[in-house]
UniProtKB/TrEMBL annotation:
This is Aspartyl/glutamyl-tRNA(Asn/Gln) amidotransferase subunit A. One of its GO terms (molecular function) is transferase activity. SUPFAM superfamilies: Amidase signature (AS) enzymes. Pfam families: Amidase. It comes from Belnapia rosea. Residues 32-456 form the Amidase domain. Keywords: Transferase. It comes from the Bacteria. PROSITE patterns: AMIDASES (PS00571). The keyword Signal does not apply.
Length: 475
């Protein structure tokens, strides 16, 4: 950034722009926090993205960051940047509700590793965000804290379960937010709210100190404005954690260094099996235009099919349902009436799967991953799909507590995202257009295990070619 940042423009900065502007002295951390607080005060009564706002603590942290910079002390990669996070990331001594009645007053004694890493990088934590109850729905409905509303039009879904994270980043309430992704819960709010969301390779980021949903499918990751934001965020948060024995020991590369804008020769597979079945016309049109934009940057696009998709889709739902039921077994016995109706139905449904089918789903995971890689990624670097097959649905159209007949529309929201959790592949969703009602449409890009750098490179090149990620709701 070459010119001083105008105060009126602060809330519109991307995360990396805000971090770089603070590091060079163009803007104070206090000014960044105040800009975010002003947006929240003006608009969150409609959006309902915030559960807990730590206003004074954020301003104190910002003043400390300003003093540290003035004193010439070393600054972290995210120093001075205000963030808020999904209310399932534990911070010792602070309530973590997990969007539920059962944990409305729960105070953990530990802090999530990912929060500790953000703290060490200098990020400013302003509080916690609304979410689907126990991270278990794809739409953003919450019977206990109120539904989160899409900042593009409050009648519409935000996507879930990281609803407050997606809506708040889109509304310019903060510059980045942690979400979690078990069946699409980062990528769906990113798509429905018109921002960028990254799910890394399974085990890429520590899950220590995070409320679990599914042992096999949970992922930690960011919702941000740009692919560059996601790259920097991942550079800070990824890597092995002794507190999480499942976390990968794979070295963490310099993700930002990969963002050259040059994707000449990048091979993109369009999997026409399953992912485009029944897709709405505006979604298909935006997806095809996105492919053209990638071609304009030098990518080579090929149409393929994948016979593995039917089995992958079936096993995905089974694994998350059974593991979710196991995690909630005691609460389901002791507090069954404290769950929303739709969540009780989903959790009890997890007990209906025979043990041998669950074991089969786990044992088939490796072979199906190898089969999908052979079908879709042998000879290709990226698989491209629409993130959501349909136009953004309304809250009423997907409220299954009010009308169980909405179940099929509710479950269809995550159809294109769930398979990549079962496969464990790194996947990003970025804005690629708007439908005829002015609601966002998302492009999903997936890569080989631990190929986050390739996925981010493709997403960044797309964002250099287009301007969809720069658009903000009028509120």
């Amino acid at each position: 950034m070459n010119a001083p940042v105008a105060v009126t423009d602060l809330a519109s900065l991307s995360m990396t722009e805000a971090a770089d502007a603070f590091a060079t002295g163009e803007v104070a951390a206090t000014a960044l926090v105040e800009a975010c607080l002003a947006r929240i005060d003006a608009h969150d009564a409609v959006v309902n993205s915030v559960i807990r706002l730590d206003r004074e603590a954020a301003l104190e942290a910002a003043a400390a960051a300003d003093a540290a910079r003035a004193a010439g002390r070393p600054l972290g990669k995210l120093a001075g940047v205000p963030m808020m996070h999904k209310d399932m990331y534990y911070r010792a001594g602070r309530v973590s509700s997990c969007g539920s009645k059962i944990r409305r007053d729960f105070i953990p004694g530990v802090t999530a590793t990912v929060l500790e890493r953000l703290d060490a990088a200098g990020a400013i934590d302003m509080g916690t965000l609304n979410m689907a109850e126990f991270a278990q729905n794809p739409t953003g409905h919450n019977a206990h804290f109120g539904h989160c509303h899409n900042p593009w039009d409050p009648a519409y879904c935000t996507g879930g379960s990281s609803s407050g994270s997606g809506a708040g980043v889109a509304a310019r309430f903060f510059y980045a937010a942690l979400g979690s992704d078990t069946g699409g819960s980062i990528r769906l709010p990113a798509t429905l709210c018109g921002v960028t969301g990254l799910k890394g390779t399974q085990t890429r980021v520590s899950r220590a100190g995070v409320m679990p949903l599914s042992f096999s499918c949970d992922n930690v990751g960011p919702l941000v404005r740009t692919a560059r934001d996601a790259a920097r965020f991942m550079a800070v948060t990824a890597g092995h954690d002794p507190r999480d024995p499942t976390s990968a020991r794979e070295p963490v590369p310099d993700y930002e260094a990969a963002l050259t804008g040059d994707i000449r020769g990048l091979r993109i597979a369009v999997c026409e099996t399953f992912f485009l079945d029944g897709a709405d016309a505006p979604v298909v049109a935006a997806f095809e235009a996105a492919l053209d934009a990638l071609r304009a940057r030098g990518a080579v696009v090929t149409r393929i099919s994948a016979s593995s998709m039917r089995a992958i889709n079936a096993y995905t739902a089974m694994v998350s349902r059974v593991e979710g039921a196991a995690i909630h077994a005691n609460w389901m016995r002791e507090h069954p009436g404290d769950y929303a109706i739709h969540l009780s139905a989903r959790l009890f449904g997890g007990y209906a799967f025979p043990a041998h089918l669950y074991v089969e789903a786990l044992s088939r995971r490796g072979p199906l991953l190898r089969q999908f890689v052979a079908e879709a990624l042998t000879g290709h670097d990226i698989v491209a799909t629409p993130t959501l097959k349909t136009r953004v649905p309304t809250l009423a159209e997907t409220d299954i507590d009010a009308d169980p007949a909405n179940w099929s529309r509710f479950m269809a929201v995550s159809a294109n995202t769930r398979p990549f959790n079962y496969l464990g592949l790194p996947t990003i969703s970025i804005p690629c257009g708007f439908d005829d009602r002015g609601l966002p449409i998302g492009l999903q890009l997936a890569g080989r295990p631990f190929a986050e750098a390739t996925v981010l490179k493709a997403a960044d090149a797309f964002q250099r070619e287009t301007g969809w990620h720069c658009k903000a709701p009028a509120l």
